[in-house]
Amino acid sequence: MKVLIKGAGDLASGIGCRLHRCGFSVVMTDIAIPTTVRRTVAFSRAVYENTALVEDVEGVLCHNAEDIQAALIKDKVAVIVDETCEIRTIWKPDVVVDSILAKVNLGTSITDADIVIGVGPGFTAGNDCHVVVETKRGHNLGRCIWEGSAFPNTGVPGVIGGYDKERIIRATADGIFKGAVTIGTVVEKGQLVGYSGTEPVYALVGGVVRGLLQDGVPVHIGMKSGDIDPRGVVESCYTVSDKASAIGGGVLEAILNSKKKRIS
Predict the structure, then answer these.
(1) Which residues of 141-178 are buried (b: 16+ CB within 10 A; e: fewer)?
(2) What predicted TM-score, i.e. pTM, was given to this entire model?
(3) Which positions ≥6 away from 62 have C-beta within 8 Å?
(4) What is the pLDDT of residues 149-192, one digit of tens each?
(5) Quick one: DSSP state of residue 151?
(6) To 5 degrees, how large is the angle CA 186–CA 191–CA 194?
């Protein structure tokens, strides 16, 4: 089956890895300047590095349908810059997964493919997609919702290591982001981690820098620019997260269950 995933950030990439390993042909779209912070486990990195390895799965940057076909033949995940998802009408996927995680639907329709899956809040099963997969940490993470919507966006990050808002690195001014540390660096509370233009950005909690924007991304004050994992396990920076794995499992279940229902 052909699966088109809208978005190529870390959660979308967790979905992409799981589906690729299960034998699906996977194409992922992203914007020209990705704003992914967990870049070490995101296929969006291919947009500016041409390739991106997420665990044992390689993604390659493609520019057209011919490039996509060549990538899939080589058993790669195809990544293409396509903000309006025009490739959908050319490649004609069996499944569309909207994992942009914009908290609102930016244009996905239930008629976009035989199976349309909305990831997180902003979608209603039976209205603009066939099934929604829950993204909120907790008991229902990764659960398939066949009627209704995911838990509404609260604006508060999930608790990790006893911290929620404090673990997020946010821009302190409008400008161009530049990191002062790298992903995998262990930092202390109050340590300099980057700059928003000329304004410094400091860590609000100690731990390992798990995510950080690439240098050169335009940011605005308050914009998420990275995250710190207070648990301090450096190896976790280079593997798909528990959250991404759970959501990937939910998407896989949604696809297979949809196929089962149609066969029966």
Answers:
(1) bbbbbeeebbeeeeeeeeebbebeebbbbbbbeebebb
(2) 0.94
(3) 27, 68, 70, 71, 78, 79, 80
(4) 999 987 777 778 787 789 999 999 999 999 999 999 999 999 99
(5) P
(6) 90
